[in-house]
Automatic annotation (TrEMBL), chain A:
Residues 239-268, 270-300 form the 4Fe-4S ferredoxin-type domain. This is 4Fe-4S ferredoxin, iron-sulfur binding. One of its GO terms (cellular component) is plasma membrane. GO terms for molecular function: 4 iron, 4 sulfur cluster binding; metal ion binding. It holds the Pfam family Fer4_5. The chain crosses the membrane at residues 16-36, 72-94, 140-158, 195-215. The keyword Repressor does not apply. The keyword Transmembrane applies. Keywords: 4Fe-4S, Electron transport, Iron, Iron-sulfur, Membrane, Metal-binding, Transmembrane, Transmembrane helix, Transport.
TrEMBL record, chain B:
Residues 237-264 form a coiled coil. The keyword Disulfide bond does not apply. Belongs to the FldB/FldC dehydratase alpha/beta subunit family. It comes from the Bacteria. This is 2-hydroxyglutaryl-CoA dehydratase, D-component. The keyword Cell membrane does not apply.
Length: 326, 422
């Protein structure tokens, strides 16, 4: 048992993550070719506009469901709405935000762009703290768009083109289908003025997505409404990111590697549950922490992966001396 | 007839320092239970450098550092050697007294004193003075006025804020650039990565050895650990690593064989406060002469120097430099910072982790920050039910009688407590 634990704690989490992300990418983008269908309540951006999707992003059905007239929405017919929501929750509750760090195709694509940048020897950019504090609120506005635009349609306040307003501007709609050779989403919808504005915003955001995540690690995830939605339910999840503040030296190593610039991960020594709304549960922080047990990932209060001095030294290649340079 | 030579003042000074050093070395070697064989290397090293004034780095550019906040990773990457100037000699302390107020910290006085006498086995080419405590910052200027080249590296006094992080990162970047110009060497990505990993490896070895001290039968006494870590101030890093590896192996065997460096009832002590620096190991030596054992410490001449490690996400020069900067500022528990919370947490964690029976807090008389924080640490320990002894000391060899009595009494009370608990 101790050996297994030791093995996990010393694991090269980068490589593990790379392969797992690739697996989920193929599963979600090309699942249809293998007749895989995980339903349409997936808690990450596995875009429903991709014809071969192996499981669909929950936001597409959610928006359609919410756009029903109110009397229908609050009738027995809504059982299906409820079922969809419960399925979403079930998926989410087991893995928490690790869906973002390990499964979301849109997240994975951003990591690949980061990889490309690194290969080209270009350094990443970061936000300053005040910028960051402002920007992180946008995702809640986005979530409001996801929920209230369709309700507005249902109530007859907004026109039908607002039904899936978020999807219109989501980069997932344009990018994901590309991987199965479908370019049909790359067009402007001239049917109404609103549709035109929304689809052009979509184009702009897609451009921003590509350029942004090339320069800034996980650029899009800062604004992602799915992430905001996750956070609302994350307290109930089984997988947890925990911190033992007594062991933390506030060295900031975890903050340094965090793609989401989460400051609390290093500075907060009071919270035990250290998962924040931006977190993508990539566990890079745990891997980068040099203090035994200061950070750990728990499932049902059992330590699954925990920070260790030995694991740190191994991952940073400090557990042996390459050669003498004297 | 033998030729009669008149001793120059410098020679006389060297003789005094050598006497001071060798008296302490003799004690360390012989007054305690037999140390691990691998300690021989370190005893010998001190003898060579501090008694015989042998130079270790004649072939390299030498960068003197006034405190641990100066990043060694960068200095090594620029093909120079860092030499920590924090000094423990009473002889130098007395000389320095003429240049600083009489109530100043002995460590600072001794450091200045060494420059007054201009007496080094390896003389630094440039001195880096991070503006940490007032006395250090001012003494940098005093040293400069004696004609040495001193570089002020600006250091923030609050470490929680985002501004301080940015400020220090900028300071470190500037330092890197200026030092590289000064030494006329270009910093390469490869070299920097190598030096981060090499220091990381040294830290890794230190941690492994430290973990062995958690055993009820700890294989090594605190006085030897201080010698090992103090050697990192000036030794060739590769030789240090080799010696450390041997020591580690031997200690692992000792743990296996359940060899105890102390005795069964010896109270386990966590040591904190002003840094014990060779040859001023007065307090640690007294503690362990009174049959206690130092199992862990929170001082910048030992644990604090090795504790936090640099972690890099992307191995680009700027990213590495920022990570290095953070490691020196963020994890540091020096009392010069506005708040002392991290330090209290750290001490408590060490007490728990190393199953210590009590804490000894030393403050150098004249070191304001350590004296001031004594209260907050005492309070925190009392709240947690951890016995603590506060000692004020200096470099003079005279007060040891009174100190011994106090330490003995403290150790006795810990022993009684231990007995009652059993
Ligand atoms: S467009 Fe975006 S929100 Fe809509 S289904 Fe695709 S990924 Fe989900
Ligand atoms: S936060 Fe990022 S990884 Fe998570 S669902 Fe949104 S885009 Fe995907
Ligand atoms: S890396 Fe670990 S010890 Fe350092 S700040 Fe983060 S949690 Fe604390
Ligand atoms: S806090 Fe940790 S798990 Fe969350 S995004 Fe940052 S590095 Fe990843
Ligand atoms: S006590 Fe603080 S300022 Fe003084 S040498 Fe140690 S770390 Fe530096």
């Amino acid at each position: 048992m101790k050996k297994i634990k030791d093995f996990i704690n010393k694991a090269d989490i980068r490589r593990f993550r790379f392969w797992l992300q690739l697996f989920f990418f193929v599963l979600f983008i090309y699942g249809g070719y293998f007749a895989i269908n995980l339903g349409n309540s997936i808690p990450v951006f596995s875009c429903g506009y991709d014809k071969e999707v192996g499981g669909m992003c929950y936001f597409l059905p959610l928006q359609h469901q919410l756009a029903r007239p109110l009397d229908v929405l609050f009738s027995v017919a809504s059982i299906s709405v409820l079922i969809g929501f419960v399925t979403f929750l079930l998926w989410f509750i087991v893995f928490n935000k690790a869906w973002c760090g390990y499964a979301c195709p849109l997240g994975t694509m951003q990591d690949w762009l980061t990889g490309l940048r690194k290969k080209m020897g270009i350094r990443f950019s970061t936000y300053t703290q005040p910028q960051f504090d402002k920007l992180k609120k946008i995702k809640y506005l986005m979530l409001a768009l996801v929920i209230f635009a369709p309700i507005g349609v249902g109530m007859g306040i907004l026109g039908g083109e607002w039904r899936t307003a978020f999807c219109e501007i989501c980069p997932g709609r344009m990018i994901t289908p590309l991987f199965v050779g479908d370019v049909s989403q790359w067009s402007l919808d001239f049917s109404t003025k609103t549709a035109m504005i929304l689809t052009s915003l979509g184009l702009i955001f897609t451009g921003l997505f590509v350029v942004g995540s090339f320069i800034k690690k996980r650029f899009f995830c800062f604004f992602c409404p799915m992430s905001a939605m996750h956070y609302i339910f994350s307290d109930a999840a089984l997988l947890k990111l925990k911190k033992d503040g007594d062991k933390c030296t506030k060295c900031g190593d975890c903050y340094n590697v965090c793609d989401m610039q989460i400051k609390d991960i290093a500075d907060d020594v009071k919270s035990t549950n250290i998962l924040r709304d931006d977190c993508i549960f990539c566990m890079k922080c745990v891997a980068a922490c040099p203090e035994d047990d200061a950070l750990h990932v728990d499932i049902l209060n059992m330590k699954l992966f925990t920070s260790t001095k030995g694991g740190f030294a191994k991952r940073m290649e400090m557990d042996r001396l390459e050669k003498k340079n004297d | 007839m033998t030729e009669h030579k008149i001793e120059t003042p410098k020679e006389r000074l060297n003789r005094h320092k050598a006497m001071e050093a060798s008296a302490v070395l003799e004690k360390i070697k012989h007054d305690y239970k037999e140390p691990p064989r691998a300690m021989e290397y370190f005893y010998d090293l001190y003898e060579r450098v501090h008694c015989k004034h042998e130079s270790l780095h004649s072939d390299k550019a030498k960068v003197g550092t006034m405190c641990i906040q100066v990043p060694s990773e960068i200095i090594y990457a620029l093909d120079a050697v860092p030499l920590r100037l924090c000094n423990g000699f009473y002889t130098d302390d007395e000389i320095g007294s003429d240049f600083l107020p009489s109530k100043s910290c002995p460590l600072v006085k001794a450091t200045v004193g060494q420059f007054v006498s201009n007496n080094f086995s390896d003389k630094p080419d440039v001195i880096i003075s991070p503006t940490t405590c007032d006395q250090k910052a001012k003494s940098g200027a005093i040293i400069e006025s004696m004609g040495f080249s001193v570089y002020d590296m600006e250091f923030p006094r609050t470490k929680e804020s985002h501004e301080s992080r940015e400020y220090w990162r900028r300071s470190v970047r500037k330092f890197t650039k200026d030092l590289s110009e000064n030494l006329n060497t270009k910093l390469s990505k490869k070299k920097l990565k190598e030096s981060i990993q090499k220091i990381g490896y040294a830290q890794h070895l230190y941690h492994k050895l430290n973990i062995l001290r958690k055993n009820t039968a700890s294989p090594i006494l605190g006085k030897d650990m201080f010698l090992v870590t103090n050697a990192f101030f000036f030794d060739k890093i590769d030789s240090w690593i080799d010696a450390m590896k041997k020591l580690l192996e031997e200690c692992e065997e000792m743990v296996e064989a359940k060899v105890n460096a102390a005795s069964k009832m010896s109270p386990r002590i966590v040591y904190t406060g002003s840094p014990p620096i060779f040859p001023n190991l007065k307090i640690p030596l007294l503690i362990e002469l009174c049959d206690a054992i130092i199992v862990a410490d929170e001082t910048c001449s030992s644990n604090r120097m090795f504790n936090d490690m640099v972690s890099v996400d992307e191995w680009f020069i700027n990213d590495m430099i920022d990570s290095i900067a953070d490691r020196y500022l963020k994890g540091c528990t020096c009392p010069i910072f506005t708040k002392n919370d991290d330090r209290k947490r750290r001490i408590l964690d060490l007490v728990k982790d190393y199953k210590a029976d009590g804490v000894v807090y030393q403050a150098f008389a004249g070191c304001q920050v350590y004296e001031m924080e004594q209260r907050s640490v005492l309070e925190a320990m009392q709240k947690a039910g951890v016995p603590i002894l506060y000692i004020e000391s200096d470099y003079s060899p005279s007060q040891s009688g009174q100190l011994t009595t106090r330490i003995e009494a403290f150790v006795e009370s810990l022993k009684n407590r231990k007995r009652r608990q059993q």
